[in-house]
Amino acid sequence: MSEVIIESHDGWAEVILNRPATRNAINGPLGIALAESFREVDADDAVNVVLFRGAQGAFCSGLDLKAFNAEPAPDWLADFQSIWRGAHKAIFDCRKPIVGALERYAINGGAALALAADLLIAGENAFLQVGEVQQGMAAPYNLAWLRLHHSQALANQIALIGRRFPGSELKSLGIATDTAADDQVLEAAAALAQQLADYPPGALARIKTGLRRYGPASADEWFDLAASPDSPGVKAPRAVDR
To answer: What predicted TM-score, i.e. pTM, was given to this entire model?
Structure first.
């Protein structure tokens, strides 16, 4: 079973985190598959919009605690930093608008993926949490996406406080484009993706590419700015299983 799957529709495609038994928690193979999937949909001329979500009703619970602490260590662990950088680079480089569907929660590393979306539909009772500060960990990708899409004042609230921000608050802060009833998040996100996909071919990519010219020149340049030189190595934060 692939850790990330693509489902195609008329003018748009879904990129789906597919580890539902772990609430779509992050490991090395998922990072590799995520990069490959975003490169694939970006290269597909039939895809104008990408809907990004997690399988079976949850977005992403963060790093897979058991996988990172397994004995013996998984063969991908030593390369995880470069794997995860590659996944975020592929998302950053995607020319097609990304509509995120935030169901239940997006925590720590999962929050960074939700924040990477250009437009985000959040469940009314879903939450996003950038909680690394409570664990003494760095959060470079969360910081990078927050500052790419939002003001420093807003990034301060999300990253320095480190609490859960529910869907209604995410909308009022401008992080979520809209909210939907918890059982209608995918329907609302799909409707938005289809609406955008019906625009003239190439228009969305041109607009997104044009807007990006006002920001960083490359993914590496931007992510390097958010990475602290004394960031601790990869540690698995306490998993949240709901």
So the answer is: 0.94
